[in-house]
Amino acid sequence: MTVRLDALTVDALDPHRLARFWGGLLGWTPVADPHAPASLEPTDDTTFRLRFLPTDAPKTTQNRMHVEVTSETPGHQDRTVARALELGGRHVDVGQRPEEGHVVLADPEGNELCVLGAGNTWLADCGFFGDVACDGTHAVGVFWSEALGWPLVWDEGEETAVRSPSGGPKIAWGGPPLMPSTGRDRLRFDVAVPAAEADAELARLEGLGARRLTDGPDADGSWRVADVDGTEFRLLVD
């Protein structure tokens, strides 16, 4: 048994507002979700949800994980940027250079996202939701490949990427130098496993290098776990 990537979760001061932004940008559908007050179901070949969890802590540093969307033409890129701004996004500067061809934006709470230019070969076989770009070591890419049972679709030097066998966006790790960790990341993964498999799966993940962050499950039965880089994720028990 391997865990299933259930959602990319986002901490939010206003979960419903962020859900409206991302739903409007991606064209995804709001859905009732026992694990969050606001959640979006994909309408494309993405195999996981977007889930928005309430927090009282405002964003203060650049995220170590962000979404990248693709463009079919320069006009398509312009329309995506305009749509994001209409929905409450804004331009941000993270040190990008004009010749790189992508536009860096932030959602209404400051979470970074990239609108890539047309002709991007890295995501040529992906849809509009191109990838989740993460800060992380080579080891963490290998960890997630084995944890999810997803193949490594990129493994060059320190850079890795995985992708579901059924398609959807890639999840990529850029290798060092890594951004400093300032505590719990605002964007995290939720993975899920049937209740009957939970103990065995926790043990398997620990065998791959994960560690439990608490002595027991949270009130909803989920476990807080860290991957081999120490990045937190949540194991949901179905």
From TrEMBL:
InterPro entries: Glyas_Bleomycin-R_OHBP_Dase, Glyoxalase_6, VOC_core. It holds the Pfam family Glyoxalase_6. Residues 4-118 form the VOC domain. It comes from the Bacteria. PROSITE patterns: VOC. This is VOC family protein. It comes from Phycicoccus sonneratiae.
